[in-house]
């Protein structure tokens, strides 16, 4: 019996030692898992914080870029409006020309536009009042001196143009209206006008 008791005692001691070992290993594993979990949580927090900061910076960058784009668009719109106004004022000034200044300009324009000397001159309602009969004689005389058989005449037809004239011969027309002149010249000189207005 004594031998059996010793065996039991030995088994119990071994079991206790094994249990203590298992408990200690379990505690160490639990501690390792806890530390790893804390480390992972810290890394996740860091990653999330970094992502949040990057997202915030990207959002700020996009907002700033959109604001700058809107400002540029607004500036361009204002500049375009000012350029439009400059050309509108020029057209307005041309339409208000009177006397010698008007006569000199309209005669020079017509002289350059005439091709055969047989055209009819169509005027705006406004210009019909300003274009005196003697101007037609002056124009025909100038053309004759250049060797053109000039027989220009004023048409009874009126056109809805703001100012200037239209030359017509056999269905072919040359548009010398002020608005057409401004539109044509604008393509060539708009950049120069912008440079004058904005120093660009």
Can you describe this structure?
- By secondary structure, the protein is α+β, with helices and mostly antiparallel strands.
- It has two domains: 96 residues; 101 residues, hypothetical protein PF0899 fold (2-Layer Sandwich).
- The protein is built from five helices and four strands.
- It has a four-stranded mixed sheet with strand order 2-1-3-4.
- β3 and β4 form a beta hairpin.
- The radius of gyration is 47 Å and the shape is rod-shaped.
- The model has no long low-confidence stretch (mean pLDDT 78).
Give the strand order, joined by hyphens, for the main sheet: 2-1-3-4
CATH class of the largest domain: Alpha Beta
Strand content: 5-15%
Mean pLDDT: 78
Number of strands: 4
Low-confidence stretches: none
When the domains are counted, the total is 2
Contiguous helical run count: 5
CATH superfamily of the largest domain: ATP synthase, E subunit, C-terminal
Element pattern in H and E: HHEHHEEEH
Query: What class do helices, strands and sheet pairing give?
Result: alpha+beta
Question: What's the architecture of the largest domain, going by CATH?
Answer: 2-Layer Sandwich
Distance between the termini: 115 Å
Overall radius of gyration: 47 Å
Overall 3D shape: rod-shaped
Biggest beta-sheet profile: 4 strands, mixed
Give the CATH topology of the largest domain: hypothetical protein PF0899 fold
* Helix content bin: over 70%
Attribute tags:
200 residues; alpha+beta; single chain; four-stranded mixed beta sheet
């Amino acid at each position: 019996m004594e031998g059996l008791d010793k065996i039991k005692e030995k088994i119990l001691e071994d079991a206790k030692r094994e249990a203590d070992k298992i408990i200690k290993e379990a505690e160490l594993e639990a501690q390792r898992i806890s530390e790893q979990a804390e480390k992972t949580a810290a890394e996740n927090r860091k990653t999330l914080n970094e992502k949040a900061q990057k997202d915030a910076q990207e959002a700020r960058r996009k907002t700033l870029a959109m604001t700058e784009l809107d400002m540029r668009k607004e500036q361009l719109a204002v500049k375009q409006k000012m350029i439009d106004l400059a050309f509108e004022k020029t057209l307005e000034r041309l339409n208000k020309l009177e006397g010698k200044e008007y006569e000199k300009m309209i005669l020079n324009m017509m002289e350059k536009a005439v091709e055969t000397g047989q055209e009819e001159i169509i005027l705006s309602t406004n210009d019909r009042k300003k274009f005196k009969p003697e101007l037609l004689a002056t124009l025909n005389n100038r053309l004759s001196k250049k060797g053109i058989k000039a027989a220009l005449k004023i048409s009874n037809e009126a056109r809805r143009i703001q100012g200037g004239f239209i030359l017509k011969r056999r269905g072919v027309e040359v548009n010398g209206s002020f608005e057409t002149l401004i539109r044509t010249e604008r393509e060539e000189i708009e950049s120069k006008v912008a440079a004058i207005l904005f120093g660009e």
